[in-house]
Design brief:
This protein is mostly helical. It is 82% helix and 0% strand.
Amino acid sequence: MIADVWTIMWKEWKELLLAQGSGRGGLVRLGLMIGVFGVFMPLQTGREWVTSPMSLVFWAWVPLFLVVGVVADAFAGERERHTLETLLASRMPNRSILFGKVLAAISYGWGLTLASLLLGLIAVNVVHGHGELLLYPPLTVVAGTVLGFLTAGLAASVGVLVSLRAATVRQAAQTMSFAVIAIVCVPVAIVGALPRLFPDISGLQVQAWLINVNWSLILVAAAAVLAVVDAVVLAAAMARFQRAKLILD
């Protein structure tokens, strides 16, 4: 099964790198992503890119954004290119096909994020280091790596689930966009509403709470919740992957 999963992953990666029917389309997109997230944004942010705990937001958000950009093509793209029937008629087990596509999307988003963070660290040290070696805090590295992987896993699992039934890549991408808006905007709206819901709590009290809170415990809890959600969504995608029905669609 592992060999079959690697085969599907390699197939997906080749299609990503050779996007839009050109040997340069996917590579250009890859270069632009690394340039924006690995050079431009770090240099604009400065030393805070490395030292601020808010960089965890980047670690968690960027894999989501990157995976959403490619995972809609997982099955809807095969359907549009009329290659889905050939794939489903192969000897590949259902789980190998599904896991291969999910892991390809995760490795793209998560791997590109880690590469951008490493490049950003180098760029910030070169331009803003002023002779001092700047490094990400250990907690940020561990938590960001884990959360980034789980966030990429969530986007990949949801994307594959959506792409399984979408008639076109555009339809799958639109559905995924609505899902991302809900995932990102709902928490932001809740945080923005807190001052109105709890007017007696001052900004200084919130700041003191943020300083004293056990972030390690919160991050472990967040990772555990994400892992459970990832497993549930992936199980739903596995249940929805019905080869005979997909061939007839």
